[in-house]
């Protein structure tokens, strides 16, 4: 399984941008980079995904390195509701595309 | 409207019992999954299933079995429950088993005593 490396935890001040890094040096050409987050006592929630190009949606932006060995999830203005565990996942083909979760980064937002 | 719903939300049962957790999705997806989140918060896939194929994580004991009466439902049956089965179980669905996003339910917290 392709693996990802994320910091265990990060802190951000409310209303400031947050950059959550992820290393995936063993990524293969067919692996999609997905980000999910899990708020306390809830199921994982999709944030964004991409293959090669940077992606934007209403929740966040995903910046993918040119060699695809790393990516960064960008929350443009952190709110208290963004406090969660953020998972960077390589969605790899295994008969179907499966999500293999790592440990994630616990993001704390300081008021 | 809840996209992926699981019942029950909480389940407390004794060792050795057999129990089921139900999952329903109203998104029209054709692929459904079961994940287990243990006390250390690791999320591990147990099964993925569409109308063509069941893919089983080889680490899952055969006491666990998914049952799909139709495309919108994937229930999880667990026989002879053990203490180590205590965890939060999440159901999820996606379209086509492809690289698109998956939607997760709110989870079922199973406690085996």
Strand content bin of chain A: over 45%
* Structural class by helix and strand composition of chain B: mainly beta
Overall form of chain B: globular
| Unreliable runs of chain B | none
Structure summary, number of beta strands of chain B: 11
Main sheet properties of chain B: 7 strands, mixed
Mean pLDDT of chain B: 91
- The N- to C-terminal Cα distance of chain A equals 38 Å
The chain-level structural class of chain A is: mainly beta
Helix-residue proportion of chain A = under 10%
Characterize the biggest β-sheet of chain A: 6 strands, mixed
The proportion of residues in beta strands of chain B is: over 45%
Q: Tell me the number of helical segments of chain A per DSSP (H or I, 4 or more residues long).
A: 0
Round the Cα radius of gyration of chain B to an integer and report it.
Answer: 13 Å
Give the overall pLDDT of chain A as a whole number.
91
Tell me the distance between the termini of chain B: 34 Å
Q: What would the keywords be for this entry?
A:
heterodimer; A: 111 residues; mainly beta; 6-stranded mixed sheet; 4-stranded antiparallel sheet; 0% helix; B: 113 residues; 7-stranded mixed sheet; 11 strands
């Amino acid at each position: 399984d392709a693996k990802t490396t994320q910091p265990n935890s990060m802190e951000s001040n409310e209303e400031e941008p947050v950059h959550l890094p992820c290393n995936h040096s063993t990524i293969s050409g067919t692996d999609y980079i997905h980000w999910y987050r899990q708020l306390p006592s809830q199921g994982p929630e999709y944030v964004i995904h991409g293959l090669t190009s940077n992606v934007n949606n209403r929740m966040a932006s995903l910046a993918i390195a040119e060699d695809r060995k790393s990516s960064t999830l960008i929350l443009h203005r952190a709110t208290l509701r963004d406090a969660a565990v953020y998972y960077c996942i390589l969605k790899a083909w295994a008969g179907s595309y499966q999500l293999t979760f790592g440990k994630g980064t616990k993001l704390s937002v300081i008021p | 409207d809840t996209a992926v719903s699981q019942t029950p939300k909480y389940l407390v049962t004794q060792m050795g019992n057999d129990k089921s957790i139900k999952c329903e999705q109203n998104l029209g997806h054709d692929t459904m999954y079961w994940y287990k989140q243990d006390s250390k918060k690791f999320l591990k896939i147990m099964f993925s299933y569409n109308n063509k194929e069941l893919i089983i994580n080889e680490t899952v004991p055969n006491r666990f079995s998914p049952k799909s009466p139709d495309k919108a439902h994937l229930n999880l049956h667990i026989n002879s429950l053990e203490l180590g089965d205590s965890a939060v179980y999440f159901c999820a669905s996606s379209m086509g088993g492809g690289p698109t996003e998956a939607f997760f339910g709110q989870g079922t917290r199973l406690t085996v005593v």
